[in-house]
What does this fold into?
Amino acid sequence: MKPKIAKPAKKYPRDSAATKARILDAARTEFAKSGLRGARTASIATRSDANKRMIYEYFGNKEGLFEAVLEDAWRDIREAEQRLHLADLEPVEAMRTLTRFTWDYYVKNPFFIALVNSENLHRAVHLKKIKDRVGEMQSHMIDMIAAILTRGVASGAIRQGIGPTQLAITIAGINYYYLSNRHTGSVVYGYDLMSAEARAKRLAFNIETIDRLLRP
Amino acid sequence: MKPKIAKPAKKYPRDSAATKARILDAARTEFAKSGLRGARTASIATRSDANKRMIYEYFGNKEGLFEAVLEDAWRDIREAEQRLHLADLEPVEAMRTLTRFTWDYYVKNPFFIALVNSENLHRAVHLKKIKDRVGEMQSHMIDMIAAILTRGVASGAIRQGIGPTQLAITIAGINYYYLSNRHTGSVVYGYDLMSAEARAKRLAFNIETIDRLLRP
Amino acid sequence: MKPKIAKPAKKYPRDSAATKARILDAARTEFAKSGLRGARTASIATRSDANKRMIYEYFGNKEGLFEAVLEDAWRDIREAEQRLHLADLEPVEAMRTLTRFTWDYYVKNPFFIALVNSENLHRAVHLKKIKDRVGEMQSHMIDMIAAILTRGVASGAIRQGIGPTQLAITIAGINYYYLSNRHTGSVVYGYDLMSAEARAKRLAFNIETIDRLLRP
Amino acid sequence: MKPKIAKPAKKYPRDSAATKARILDAARTEFAKSGLRGARTASIATRSDANKRMIYEYFGNKEGLFEAVLEDAWRDIREAEQRLHLADLEPVEAMRTLTRFTWDYYVKNPFFIALVNSENLHRAVHLKKIKDRVGEMQSHMIDMIAAILTRGVASGAIRQGIGPTQLAITIAGINYYYLSNRHTGSVVYGYDLMSAEARAKRLAFNIETIDRLLRP
DNA sequence: CATGAATGAGAATTCATTCAT
DNA sequence: TATGAATGAATTCTCATTCAT
It folds into this structure.
């Protein structure tokens, strides 16, 4: 009765790695936009041109998928940091570079902040399952900062006594907070926190803050 | 047939304002724990010794309730700030006091951070509806900080050129970020960020950061 | 805390008959607009400047109220018919007058059609409870029509053999159907069935139909 | 713990078109019996041996389902009319046939009247969404009646000046009204309007009415 | 590997009705 | 008589997950 319209040719070949990657991408976007609870598996399936069954095939369930997304995101930022080769820079400049990088990364990859906030809402239960891997990545970063501080103290460019973890948290925090709260901030302050001008001003202020924190 | 368990005597008199307040309290807790999406109206009704129907009677729907909670939370922190009477303090000490207060408030009222993060996930759509009221509260705070900065610059205790909004954001950020990310942080750094020792260390570091930011 | 605004003086005195009447009026409107199922007791309470408790006080429950409304409506149309004094008119003219009256009544009191349709959806369970009273009213009307027909046959103005009930149903039907289906009709015929022009045309057609039905 | 009652073997294969059709059938019955508001999606799901979720999958929501039912019903009666091939009949006989058909259709498919009454209660909002399709069907019918009238006038069997839409409305109305109000009518007239005898009498009266309306 | 159909357990929301004052 | 608060039982709708092909 109903004439069967020929379906358009399938877009994607049977390539499990590619399908998995597309699902991961779509999930990252969806989780960032809506959080773990608010994300829809149906939406992820549609966005990824896959189908719901595949999510379960590859990731077990929605939480498994969230964990995968989270680990992937964590690895991505830490690896990008490694590529800065801060060890090759003069200590204070290295810290400025790290500050700039952190800001830029958060700006260009807003999913990172959203994912981390979601995970904190869930008391880090997913991250705990992969704590060995993310813990190691984090250690690398702290070690790198510690080495730079040591160099800076030795050269007299940086004051003594700064804890590398505290510094790392501050560098992340001053960038993260502004961007994480860009929507509420724009409302309560009454101007667009994300205009080019506002962003430039904030980044400059943050670099100044770090400079002064390091200064002997 | 069904054995009737004697219900506990009704705890509360018929007082609509009180019921409304109990619902608001319960909702704050629930939204902070689970976010807007994850919060359950049934759970809020139970926690508040009220009835699901009452939520709709007084707040329209779940989002209306969330808005009420958000406005209440915003008002609470801003009013608590007012009670610090920073104008009566010496400028640098005023900023230290504000920093300490912010830290303590976030520690004692963790719902605030959770609510704000939720609201940012939702791109501040709820806050926008009450932007006039929260905007005004925020202006008061910025004006207050500006006045302190002016006094500090005049006395020579504070350097020139610090924007009050940037400073406010930094004071909030260095405290907020650490506490907002306490769960993921504890996992990736491998120690309890909320131990008394860790907290004391962090607060001291934050005060130092602000001190150095203000110093001429 | 909350300043108590003095309420406006109560609009209505404690007059049970008046309150009851206001509720009945409001209920008629609400039931006509939304049907028995769709009507809201809260809305009826508001419309009548009474309160929900009063509905239960006076009418037992929503269905009791519907029955009261139905009986009231039935009585109203039958009483209005009585006031036409058709017995005083020439037979054919009497039928034309009845046709015109029926049309006008339905036009001016659209709630009647809506209530009757609702009641038929509910298989007349409510009307059954008051069948003695409405049955008697209906008998009066049929008797009156029968008398007119007898007079008309005697005078030669009306053909023999027309059943008064069949005639009554036809007179009602050709008017009722058009008005009951005015919304769907306007959609499927593509013009406003309720424009002054359309209404005049329809009434004329209906009178012609009855004329020809009676004609020897 | 809970004794597992063996479920009856699944009755239907996974055939989305068939499931959709079963839901539509069940919905027609349910809407006819209870109206749009009174119909229960749970009941429709049960009747159709489907699942509530499927209703939403295929029809969006309850109103979408109602629209689908309405369009289907409209199409059905208009298509059945087409199958009468009235154009092949002598004009007056064609009108008698249409009158008989209309009566029979309403008797055999009482859901049609119930649906149309429901839709009028809702001011035709659903029909408006599909007005193009139903409008076209209706035009076909009116054109067909107009053609018959023209033929009848030419042959002298039918008087001049009868509007096809008015005639269509009268044919529908005299049948529809009696059947739509069969419950209230049976109560107020005190006899079963749907007995075989009563039905035969009414149909004959209606044919007579149309005959006389057409007669030159 | 892939797909679309199906499901059941909730979730928010609604509403008639009753209670306490 | 009147009122506003409270309630519990539905009711619509949603969603992660599994099944059949």
Confidence is low (pLDDT under 50) at residues 1-10 of chain D. Residues 14-16, 19, 50-54, 57 of chain D lie near DNA strand E (CB under 10 Å from a C1'). Chain D is about 75% helix and 0% strand.
